[in-house]
Write a structure and sequence with these properties.
265 residues; Aspartate Aminotransferase, domain 2; Aspartate Aminotransferase, domain 1; 4-stranded mixed beta sheet
């Protein structure tokens, strides 16, 4: 929760959206409690992630802590379909009813449209695929955690690179393994030349996207966000990643940070 702005609602409809790698402990007082805000979880990369609440002495799963949560089943997610798919979780019956109508042209029942909606129904074949894959999710998540631990062991003592942080009360599922380095683009080119795939999640901060230019933000308004966007790099991460493949990735990364650290000195 560090870095969340002091949001003061104007009315009961104000909402706070927090996108966070580690689920904050919503069982403790937060800005959402203080200002009576509605919490909507972005759990699109957090299938199976957990947070242990010391106050409640129990674990909470991502997607169970807010008024509602959004999950993506895009093919590349930890739990992915073979096409576009997603889901919303909530314990709010009225909200669930509204969401069901929104996904089906605003229909409360066939041909009776109470509100304007969309055609966002999940195909039966995608649901069938997800149902089968769901049985493997816990195993795949553990394999991702094992891969993350190997990266930590091999890169943890290196200078010039910042690794993902996982707190003692969190259990990440590592949809991505994002590191921070200076000269990020140079490292990415080096890895590409070595036939090692990487990604940048995400290269352009939201306030710099053309879609939101009417909000009036300019470069420099969110300096930490802008700096991080230029440093982050997603290393290979998937359940079938082998120790040999990771060693090859790490070898290239260590050579790069060793060179750049020596040049900086």
């Amino acid at each position: 929760m560090r870095g969340i702005p002091d949001v003061r609602p104007h009315d009961e409809h104000n909402r706070l959206l927090v996108s966070n790698v580690h689920p904050p402990d919503w069982t403790n007082p937060t800005p959402a409690h203080r200002y009576n805000l509605v919490v909507i979880e972005d759990a699109c990369q957090a299938h199976g992630a957990e947070y242990f609440s010391k106050r409640q002495t129990r674990s909470y799963t991502a997607g169970s802590m807010g008024r509602a949560a959004a999950f993506s089943f895009y093919p590349g997610k930890n739990l992915g379909a073979c096409g576009e798919a997603g889901a919303v979780t909530t314990n709010d019956e009225e909200l669930a009813r509204t969401i069901r109508m929104l996904r089906d042209h605003g229909q409360a029942k066939k041909y009776y449209h109470e509100i304007e909606g969309y055609n966002g129904k999940l195909d039966a074949i995608q649901a069938g695929i997800l149902q089968i894959k769901l049985g493997h999710l816990a195993e795949w998540n553990e394999k991702r955690r094992t891969c993350a631990q190997r990266y930590q062991e091999m890169l943890g003592s290196a200078e010039g690179i910042i690794l993902p942080y996982e707190g003692s009360s969190g259990k990440a599922v590592y949809h991505l393994y994002v590191v921070r380095v200076h000269n990020r683009d140079e490292l990415q080119r080096r890895l590409t030349a070595a036939a090692i795939g990487t990604g940048i999640h995400y290269p352009i901060p939201l306030h710099q996207q053309s879609a939101y230019r009417t909000l009036g933000y300019k470069r420099g308004d969110f300096p930490i966000t802008e700096r991080l966007a230029g440093e982050i790099l997603s290393l290979p991460m998937f359940p079938g990643l082998t120790p040999a493949q990771q060693s090859r990735v790490v070898e290239q990364v260590l050579e790069f940070v060793g060179l750049t650290t020596a040049q900086a000195a």
